[in-house]
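CORE FACILITY INTAKE
Project code: CF-77B
Contact: R.S. (postdoc)
Sample description: multi-component assembly, two entities in total
Requested service: structural model of the whole complex
Turnaround: standard
Below are the sequence entries exactly as provided by the requester. Do not edit them.
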Amino acid sequence: MPRPALAMSVLVLLCLIEVEGRQSPVQTFAQMEAGAMSPRNATYRIDVRLDHAARTLTGLETIRWRNISSNPASELQFHLYWNAWRDLESTFMRERRLAPGFTPPRDDAWGSVEVKKITLGRFDLTSQQRFLAPDDGNMADRTVMAVPLPYAVQPNEAIEVVVEWTAKIPRPFARTGYVGNYYFIAQWFPKVGVLENGGWNTHQFHSATEFYSDYGVYDVRMTVPAGFVVGASGLEMERRMNGDGTETHRYVGNDIHDFAWTTSPDYLDSGRMFEHPSLPAVRMRLLLQPEHAGQAARHFDATAAAIRYYGEFFGPYPYEYITVIDPAFQSGAGGMEYPTLFTAGTRWLAPRRVAVPESVTIHEAGHQWWYGMVGSNEFEHAWMDEGLNTFSQARTLEAAGIANNLGLRFFGGFVPWVIDDVQLVRATDLNRLTGYRDNAEADIQATPTFTYWPGTATFITYNKTALWLHMLEKRHGWPLFQKVMYTYWGRWRFRHPQPEDFFAVVNEVTGEDMTWFFDQVYRSSNVFDYGVQDFASRTVRLKPDTTDNGYRTIVVARRFGEAIYPVDVVTTFRNGEKVTERWDGRDRRAIYTYDRPSQAVSVQVDPDRLLLLDVNYTNNSAALEPRGGEAGLKWSLKWMTWLQDLMLTWAFFV
Amino acid sequence: MILRSWFDGLDRVRRAPAVLGGVFVLTLAAALPLAITMRGAIVAHLGSSLAANTAADAVNYDWWQEFTSQASGLGTTFTPAVIGFAATLDSLSSVLDWRRPMAPIAGALATYLLAWLFLSGGILDRYARQRPTRAHGFFAACGVFFWRFLRLGIVAGALYWALFTYVHRWLLDDAYEWLIVDVAAERVAFLWRFGLYAVFGAALVAVNIAMDYAKVRLVVEDRRSAIGALSAALGFLGRNPGRAFGLYALNGLIFLGLLAVWALVAPGAGGAGLSMWMGFAATQLYLLARLALKLQFMASQTALFQRSLAHADYAAAPLPAWPDSPAAETIIGG
């Protein structure tokens, strides 16, 4: 291309970027190659060989890394995630050991990764490797490695680093490892951290958080035993039989920030096209366990539902392909997202009316939007992908009208039973209110996720976010809130947004400064609990000089929790009249008195349940003629028959 | 012989409806105090809330989860497993997976099992005699055999304890984990687990059947020694394995058939009022059937023993003569 044309192209591209959206505060030089969707500043070419007998990987990778921060880089930092399973002293295992009932892994379960050689051009950096522990100072942790560079890499300057490494494949840890002939290989190669304007953002591997990395092109050749089926991020470009009983599969993925793969001789490989009048077609590939052969349609339908509804809600899926992996039993690999590939999760006995494969599939497919395209930092702000995605998953399940009964499991979890009487609903069940309710004060969401208490991190990350996002939807209405979400997605896709970026979009699109809201739900761990403190409706003489009797109704609404949110207080009278009071919810209580010819029958605080984070909704209402006795009788009889059944079962022993 | 004993047992159960009625009342009475406590907890939690409306008319799962998360002790056992056939699966699964019951439930279970131990002497005596013994005779037999059964119960308890403490752990934890360590297909693991359940269940059945015939021999032969009765029961089983285990299997199959029917017809949550009482009645009918089957086990095993031990004047059905002891009756008859 002639120079003036090239300069003009770059100029136009820069203008486009400026017009398209704001620059990320964490990185500055987000220039993109022609045809690229992302900065592509961390591009990998990897050759890896699986030794099935020895359960090892041997890899050679060339990383083309471009400094898109505003500062020169004098060192490179790498994630060596598999060293989390090297021994019990890694940060990951130390955190795991905090869990009650922790049992150490088997002797043959451990995994690790070792960099044998690392070079930058003519410079051999191998001997200069050192391990860092930026999060907790644990010097026994080897999941972050740094090497000094022989020269500073200037902003927007690129280098090529060649890394030779070997890895011991673990039995399943954190969705990675082998079981029998099945392999799921994730977070498996030495991977460059993210250089931000403030320096390297390379966290250690923690037990309750996931990952963060830059976008690039992955060109990966995987050599596996001949006859093994391979599924991977990206698209298969080439397959070659080697003379030694192995086969090499080459996959290429553009504009992705991670690469995972799986191989097994047992997979059933099938495909189906996703087609939609206004969304791009997507080739869906499903690698299914043979024992789940009858569940292929459920996986395809759920994947298609995710591509359709996420596409309609937020924006189109930009890749032409997606791979769904049905992981092997005990692989621990179920329910995990990787770019253009995800693992679903089902059971051999999976009743139709229990949407377990569907909900997992939709959730993980949905991560292509929240994680894959919008590349937030999962170490620090896991709610930005998991929370947004839990909200989106719940909305999709509801929109797709997928039957979703409660399912229980017995006999070691193998035997399912459907509770026909319990239909799971979006607001409370799919947004996972219960888990949040039990752990509402566990952590302040604004603190870095990797510092959350590992045992309860998920409730603050997934559940609380989904609930408060649904509150925003209820407050602003779906059309406006949808605009919030697709504006955020469109603005931050293939970039690394921060929490404030999301809040800014909410404020901008809704036209309302919601800082007060985020102060409550995000920057605080206070709980919401509004309720009825007192409710009475008694006969009174309405006017002193007449004999007209009526009723004086007194309602005392109460804020039991520390968190504040405006709520409605609705009093219903026997004649059908309803009186709605709008309470800002700030004071500890609000008292309303009504003199009416009709007696009040009930009062409800937040009757439309706009405040989904309310941890105690039972106390939100009161009736003059309560039916607690009836309900108590009915359910205690049910419970009694359960106890009688248990007694009879135990009577076997006498 | 198996079928004749089974029908003979059925006839003995049928002719003693008071026994069935009695154990039914026992099963109801044993559960009632805790059910009243549970009702109090539910009513207290609901208070005057409108959440009670949906809870009364159908299932208010949102309230339910709130209740469970705020509950402690007994309240934590109030889960959706109480609905319909799930309750049966839950109770069977809790035994086979050895989930220890919490303290108040364990207390109720212990009381219930002790009551069964007390009544078993009277029940077997009634079935052995094949004639009404009236309340006095029934409870006298209960009293006579209780201490012997208690001694036998200690032996049985020790064996069951060993099975659950060691064998269960070896089979369903250690061996299971070892067997499936490289298993990548759930159905294979399922087969292993259910195979191990079968092995463990067979061990339970072996102890159970030995104890059953020990009790039968204690009563029918008016034995004093629990150990002696157990030894004699083992001898009987050794000489009549096909009949004894065949009869047990037949009763077991009927139990599985009953479960299958219940799985199809068990009522769901229902509403308050009439549907609640109809659901309750249906469930009590199912429990009554299970109790009848338990009694059928006892009666048919008694019949088999009395038919098998070919000494008509000793262990066969005694003549209706005073005194109560079959052994004494044999002596009188002889």
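Facility notes:
- The first helix of chain A runs from residue 3 to 20.
- Confidence is low (pLDDT under 50) at residues 1-22 of chain A.
Invoice: internal transfer
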